[in-house]
TrEMBL record, chain A:
It is an enzyme of class 1 (oxidoreductase). This is Sarcosine oxidase delta subunit. InterPro entries: SoxD, SoxD_sf. One of its GO terms (biological process) is tetrahydrofolate metabolic process. Keywords: Oxidoreductase. One of its GO terms (molecular function) is sarcosine oxidase activity. Its EC number is 1.5.3.1. Signal peptide: none annotated. It comes from Rubellimicrobium thermophilum DSM 16684.
UniProtKB/TrEMBL annotation, chain B:
Keywords: Oxidoreductase. SUPFAM superfamilies: Folate-binding domain (SSF103025). This is Sarcosine oxidase gamma subunit. Its EC number is 1.5.3.1. It comes from the Bacteria. One of its GO terms (molecular function) is sarcosine oxidase activity.
Length: 94, 186
């Protein structure tokens, strides 16, 4: 599988490490969120047959975290963004 | 005060040079290395300070040569800077005073082993060792890649000239991988 890196162009999936669902970006506030919300954040995942946003780490490359939008049925990669940009667009400060 | 002898990454007093047919693998101990990363929101300040100090900050996947400072891109808003060891042994401190508060700088000289590869054409060797499309990428290309399970930085200076930076503690293993591949090519 080839992942089209937004900065470096097409790179072999071998260079990347897979973390999981990109919803990990949306961590609840530990000071205000209840235990239920944190439980869901940690353990509850949807398992869609179709479009899915995932976090990938370019470990053997530029060490960037990417949000890869991938179709889990066809394995087609629809979009690749820097996780930093996605997180900032969602209102995170880091 | 103890009198200490500096050792190379291969545990010797002098750098090692080995040849296999047309290929020369030369360990380099005369390069000082430091990483430079822009602090959050300070990229414009870093760019200005680097320009004034003569530190190149090349585009992604690129190496830029200069005197005394050369540099290659390793991550967004982060570079490795090279300089001659004889004049820049304290490269981290020199860059800190040159670039100020805009950048976080880390000494890297003794974290890596540097090998210069020279042969008329290095493509047959490198295609056995890593997944960089060596004949296609331009001179001045710099990337991180994997050789024999080791993460290394590869800088292409030309079709027959490459600089490798590998993890210092695995210097012997990297050299062994290079020599093994070389024996099957040359």
């Amino acid at each position: 599988m080839i992942i089209p890196h937004p900065i470096l162009g097409p790179r072999d999936a071998q260079e990347f490490v897979y973390l999981g669902d990109a919803s990990l970006i949306d961590r609840p506030d530990g000071m205000t969120a209840g235990i239920e919300e944190f439980h869901d954040y940690l353990y509850q995942r949807t398992n869609p047959a179709g479009e899915h946003q995932e976090l990938w780490y370019h470990e053997q490359g530029d060490r960037s975290w990417l949000v890869v939008t991938r179709n889990t049925v066809t394995h087609e990669i629809l979009k690749v963004e820097l996780a930093r940009d996605v997180a900032r667009a969602r209102g995170r400060t880091k | 005060m103890a009198s200490l002898q500096p050792l190379t990454a291969l545990g010797r007093r002098e750098p090692v040079t080995v040849t296999h047919g047309p290929l020369t693998i030369a360990e380099r101990t005369d390069v000082a290395l430091a990483s430079v990363a822009a602090r959050k929101g300070r990229m414009a300040d870093l760019a200005a300070a680097a320009r004034a100090a003569g530190v190149p900050l090349p585009a992604p996947a690129a190496h830029q040569s200069g005197t005394p400072y050369s540099a290659f891109w390793i991550a967004p808003e982060m570079w490795f800077v090279e300089a001659p060891f004889a004049s820049h042994e304290l490269i981290a401190e020199m860059l800190k005073s040159a670039l100020g508060e805009a950048a976080s700088i880390t000494e890297q000289t003794d974290a890596w082993v540097a090998f210069d590869l020279a042969a008329p054409d290095l493509a047959p060797l490198l295609e056995r060792l890593c997944n960089v499309d060596f004949p296609v990428v331009p001179a001045g290309y710099a990337t991180r890649t994997v050789m024999e399970h080791l993460g290394v930085y590869l800088i292409k200076h030309g079709a027959g000239a490459v600089r490798l930076y590998g993890p210092r503690s695995s210097a012997q293993s990297l050299l062994h991988a290079l020599e093994t591949a070389a024996r099957s090519v040359f």
